Amino acid sequence: MKDDNQAFIAKKLKPFRKEIDKLDAELMKLLGKRFGIVRKVAKVKIEHDIPSFLGGRVDEVRENAVAHGLKYGIDPQFVRTMYTLMIYQSCALEDSLKHEAKQKASGKKKKAPEKKTAKKPAARKRKSA
DSSP characters for 68-95? Predict the structure, then answer.
């Protein structure tokens, strides 16, 4: 009987699960785009020595998200928590890219040791006989 009940539940929930799976895929695609932009921002921050974490901007982003979430009936605390995680990950990505850029820059600054080459013996002039 238990198996019948599970089959019934699965059948009833299948269309909703399918929709949720599709939306989850779209969310991941959007997050991928968002992190692509974060990588572009990181390049600018690296170029101009701007810190990864900008407190005023973080608050602005989070509160904009809360306002959008309210339009769709999403709990503001959930949105703040979710955006805190995304912002933390964005800053971590920027820091990682900055570290990589510094490593590359320090590698370029070091000159490769000059190769010592054996001096060719000076050509001897032949004395004419």
Answer: HHHHTT--HHHHHHHHHHHHHHHHHHHH
